[in-house]
Amino acid sequence: MTVNDIKHPGLVAWINEIKDYCTPDSVYVLDGSAEEYDRLMQKAVKAGIAIPLNPEKKPHSFLFRSDPSDVARVEKRTFIASEKQEDAGPTNNWVDPAELKKTLMGLYKGCMKGRTMYVIVFSMGPVGSEFSKIGVEITDSEYVSCNMDIMTRVGKAVIEELGTNGFFIHCLHSVGKPLAEGENDNGMWPCAPIEKKYIAHFPETREIWSFGSGYGGNALLGKKCLALRIATVMARDEGWLAEHMLILKLTNPEGKSRYVTAAFPSACGKTNLAMLIPTIPGWQVHTLSDDIAWLRYGKDGRLYAMSVEAGFFGVVPGTSMHSNPNAMIAAQKNTIYTNVALTEDKDVWWEGIGYDAPGKLIDWQGNEWVQDKTNKDQKPSSHPNSRFTAPANQCPCISDDWEDPHGVPVSAILFGGRRPSTIPLVHGARTWTHGTFLGSIVGSEITAAALDAGSGIRRDPMAMKPFIGYNAGDYFKHWLNVGKAAKDQSLLPRIFYVNWFRKTAEGKWLWPGYGDNSRVLKWIFEVCDGTAQTVDTPIGIMPTLDAIDRPEGVTEEDMKELLNVDIDGWLREVEDIRKNHYPIFGDKLPKELWAQLDSLEADLKAAKCDCGCGCGCCGK
Ligand code: OXD
Ligand code: MN
C-alpha cells in the first residue's frame, strides 16, 4: 500500500514529515497480507539478515542473528521523558523531553538513507474493540515489520478503523544505520552502538521514539513501550490497569471455568504457566495471553482482562516438549527465531531443548559450535535471551475467547518471583489493599555476582518495575484507587502470591513446577468458589497441609516446608522492605501500604512463638 491509501490527514502529514527528515529511499504502508510478509522476509534474506529454515522441519520460518550489542531490552537506555522529573519517579531514567527530542532529532536526520521506510498501522487488542488502542510504527526494519505482523494486528482493517481522524500513538523507530549508495546490510544486523541507542517515551504526548536497536522490546514498539509504558499512563488517566500479566482460563472437571492473570518478572515462567498442561485429571488450562493484559471494569462490576497481543515473543532456552509442549508446537511453523543455533540441516537447536545437539551447529554469533558435555564452561550455542516469535492462534491450547473484545472476567490475580526461601508456595491476600501490598513487594532472588546493596532480592513491584511509565508511587496509589472504585468489593478478583521456586538448604527444588502448578491453581479456584480448605496466617490465607494434592516425589515433609510461615524469614523480609524498598518511593508511597507493612510486622511478632521452637505454634 502507499501513503495515498491513507485517508487520515494527520497520519499522512506525520508520515511525510518523517520521510522528509529521515530520507528513506522509499515509503511503504503495510497491508498485513501474507504475500507482503513473504516479500519483506525475502528482502531480509537477500540482505543476509534472515536465514530460511528447512521447510520440512520448520515450515515458513526464519532465523535471525542479532549484533552482540543488541540482544535484549536496554533499561539503561530507556527513558521516560515526562515534562516534570517527579512524574517519571524513582524507577525510570528521566531526561527533559525538549532536550531528549533535540538529541534524537540529531540522530534521526537522514538515518533511513538507503532503506525502505515502513508504516505499520497496528492495533493492540482486537480490531474494533472499544478498549483497543491503535499505534502507528514507522520503522526502517524488515525484521521489526515482520515481527509486528505476528505480534499485533496490522494493516487494512486497522487503517479503516482509524478512519480520517482517529487517535493513534506515534511510534518512531530506526535501527540507526543508514546505508551508503549501493550498500547492503550484507549479513550484518543493523543497529547503532549502545551509547546511541535510545528507547524514549513522551507520556504526555503519548509518543515513542526509538533509535539504534532492532531487538525485541526496544524495537517492536507495540509491546513494552506502548502496551505497558504508555498504556500505564493512559490507564492512570482513564481508570484502568495495563499490566505485565498472562491470562489463562482454568476449567475444572465439571466444566466450570475461571480466568486467572499472573504477573511474574521477566523470565520467571509466564509463558510456561500460561500454556500449562495440568497434571491433575480433568482440569484444563487454556491461554489468552503470555505477557500483557489490560484490565478494566465491565458493566457487571467485575474486572475484565483483555489480551492485547496477537503473538508470543517467548524466551527459547529451556523450552522443550517436557517444559512447554504447547509453546514448542506454536513455534513449529510461521515462526521467527532470533539468536538460536542452526543445525546442519537448517533446523534450530538450543540449550534445554531436551535432546543433544545433532552434530555441528552454527551458534547465535555465526561460529561453528560442537556440543562438549564434558566442558561445563562451554559457551551456550544460543543466547540466553534468544526468542521465538509465533502467532498466538498456532498455540494448541489457545482459548476460544482470547480475542473477545470485552475481555474476560478475572477471578484471581497472581504475583510471584523466584524466591528459594521464605515465601511459601502460595498465600492469598485478605483484601484488594493487602493484595496491592503483596504486588508491591514482589521480588526475585539474585545471584551473588549481582547482589544489590544490602539484600539479595531484586524487588520488581507487580513485575512492572521496567514498565511503569510514570511515578511508581503514583502507580501504587492507582492500584488502590482501582480497588476502591469497585461497585462491589466482593466482585473483585482475589489476589495471591505464588512461589514455584522454593529450594531446600541443600539447593534441591522442593516443588516440581510446570504442569504440577495446576495443583496450586486448583486450590486458588476453590478459594474463589468458597470451597477451599484454608487457614488464616500472619501473612494471609493459606492452604491447610492437605488442601493441595501432592505431586509425585513431594513428601509430606516437603509440603510442610513449602507451606511453612517462616516467621523469622518474614521479619527479615519486613525489615528489608522497610529499609531498602519502600523508602525508594518517598512521600509518594501510599500510607495504606506502610500500614500493611506495619500490621504484617505486628502479626508476625504476635505469632512468634515463645516456647522456643520457632514455628509459631503457641500462637503468641
Ligand atoms: C519480555 C520481557 O520480553 O518481559 O516479555 O522482558
Ligand atoms: Mn514480559
Tally of separate domains: 2
Characterize the main sheet. Answer: 9 strands, mixed
Q: What is the mean pLDDT? A: 95
Bound heterogens, unique: oxalic acid, manganese (II) ion
* Low-confidence regions: 448-454
Share in helix: 25-40%
Secondary-structure map:
Elements: H1 9-22, E1 26-29, H2 34-46, E2 50-52, E3 62-64, E4 78-80, H3 85-88, H4 97-108, E5 116-124, E6 133-139, H5 142-151, E7 153-154, H6 156-162, E8 169-174, E9 198-202, E10 207-211, H7 216-219, H8 222-238, E11 241-243, E12 246-251, E13 257-263, H9 270-274, E14 284-289, E15 293-297, E16 303-307, E17 311-315, H10 325-330, E18 336-338, E19 341-342, E20 348-349, E21 361-362, E22 368-369, E23 387-391, E24 408-416, E25 426-428, H11 432-440, E26 443-445, E27 457-459, H12 472-484, E28 494-498, H13 518-529, E29 534-537, E30 540-543, H14 556-562, H15 567-581, H16 591-607
Helix pairs in contact: 2-5, 11-12, 11-16, 15-16
Bound molecules: oxalic acid and manganese (II) ion.
